Amino acid sequence: MRAFDILGDPVRRRILELLATGEHSSGDVVAVVQREFGITQSAVSQQLRILRDAGFASVRADGTRRIYAVEAGRLREVDDWLDRFRALWLPRLDALATEVARGKRKRRHQD
Amino acid sequence: MRAFDILGDPVRRRILELLATGEHSSGDVVAVVQREFGITQSAVSQQLRILRDAGFASVRADGTRRIYAVEAGRLREVDDWLDRFRALWLPRLDALATEVARGKRKRRHQD
DNA sequence: TACTAATATTAGCTGAAGGTAATATTAATG
DNA sequence: CATTAATATTACCTTCAGCTAATATTAGTA
What we know:
The structure is a homodimer of 111-residue chains.
Chain A: H1 3-7, H2 10-20, E1 24-25, H3 26-37, H4 41-53, E2 57-62, E3 65-70, H5 72-86, H6 95-101
Antiparallel strand pairs in A: 1-3, 2-3
Helix pairs in contact in A: 3-4
Chain A binds a DNA duplex (30 and 30 nucleotides) through residues 9, 11, 25-27, 30, 39-43, 45-49, 61, 63-66.
Pfam family, one (chains A, B): HTH_5
InterPro entries (chains A, B): ArsR-like_HTH, HTH_ArsR_DNA-bd_dom, HTH_MetalResp_TranReg, WH-like_DNA-bd_sf, WH_DNA-bd_sf
GO molecular function (chains A, B): DNA binding; DNA-binding transcription factor activity
């Protein structure tokens, strides 16, 4: 669950929240984060890189712009990790029902 | 989502995984974590305190022992935060269906 | 009541995460 | 092709989270 190491930073989480609403250019992300956290373009760019390297985001070039999008994989890891706790607030649902309900395809350990 | 700040540490995550399987004494937790991470009793005790203070765990005394249990609330926050991404891997489920399926009672912002 | 067992707390140290400032890179544009 | 716009990278600095070592606390026990 290295995924949580990445999510343990408010700037990175905010970036992901933003990307959850759709693709955004680096500039867009910088603008929002800069307004809310008051950090430099450099710092935001570094966080974007971390998200890329960790597989939480992907980039595509559009001229001189970089368009970022969120990637599902690592976030599903987090979702899966939570499974072990869900019995705490879904006590009546059995495991299979929960999986079906959540539309989860049965995945092997780390796919 | 301060919850993620707490989860952004492997020792704390491991402790929660352990507590997910049921109550454990401080000593039990120390034994496991010590074996796996090679840190001192002091360090583990400090992490247990952080989990307590943050509302991820609760304690009850049993003689000289402290029995820890996981608390659902903060973990649900994480689960809720993930909602915005679930469309990425559950594209066909509409919002209501997802909620019903996951058995989630409609909660107000931060209850 | 002295001793031990279980756990928590405190003080101090250290590495690494995340920041800034400056600079490099790359593509569009006149 | 020189310039500008958008973004990334690098080097360096600083803060603080998490560690250890030592000690305090509290309950059971001989």
